[in-house]
Structure to design on (194 residues):
């Protein structure tokens, strides 16, 4: 997309530097009622104020998604109200979640105040044959997909995996449904699992 619209996506370190400074700007504008002044490397504000100010106490909630331990999780600990892990199997989610809790405590924040979520793909089959057919189209197996953090299976298996994610600390799951033209199967997933 960035190429289509003529934007330089930048290298990852510079992109994260801008993102970090941007988070400071955005969260301060959303959460502080007084004008802010900031002379950053990328953004300069002089007596800036956001009007109308968010009505929610504490400002608009900020969700940061990603799994990186070096930059992403520290930014979540400093600025976010919700962490959204991406394509993590339960064991890896547990590890990242524990790391985030330690970072939040280091920042002096209550870990319970930061919601934990996960975005991942779901491959649902009404039966094993349908599930394996979709996996074959993806060029993978159920085991390999699960190792990559994808929720895979019939209703019982999907329910079991969602339970494992809840035990790992996931409070909300955002399931990506890639079979965009198969609304009947999506309805079957919702009826059987949700």
């Amino acid at each position: 997309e960035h190429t289509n619209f003529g934007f330089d996506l930048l290298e990852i370190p510079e992109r994260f530097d801008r993102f970090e400074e941007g988070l400071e700007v955005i969260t301060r504008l959303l959460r502080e009622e007084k004008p802010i002044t900031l002379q950053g490397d990328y953004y300069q504000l002089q007596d800036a104020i956001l009007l109308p100010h968010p009505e929610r106490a504490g400002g608009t909630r900020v969700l940061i998604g990603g799994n990186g331990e070096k930059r992403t999780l520290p930014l979540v600990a400093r600025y976010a109200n919700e962490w959204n892990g991406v394509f993590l199997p339960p064991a890896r989610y547990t590890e990242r979640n524990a790391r985030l809790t330690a970072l939040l405590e280091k920042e002096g924040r209550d870990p319970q105040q930061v919601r934990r979520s996960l975005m991942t793909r779901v491959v649902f089959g009404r039966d094993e044959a349908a599930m394996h057919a979709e996996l074959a189209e993806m060029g993978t197996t159920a085991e390999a997909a699960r190792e990559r953090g994808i929720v895979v299976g019939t209703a019982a298996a999907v329910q079991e995996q969602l339970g494992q994610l809840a035990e790992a600390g996931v409070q909300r799951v955002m399931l990506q449904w890639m079979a965009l033209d198969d609304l009947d199967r999506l309805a079957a997933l919702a009826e059987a699992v949700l």
In short: Residues 1-60 form one domain. The chain has seven helices and seven strands.
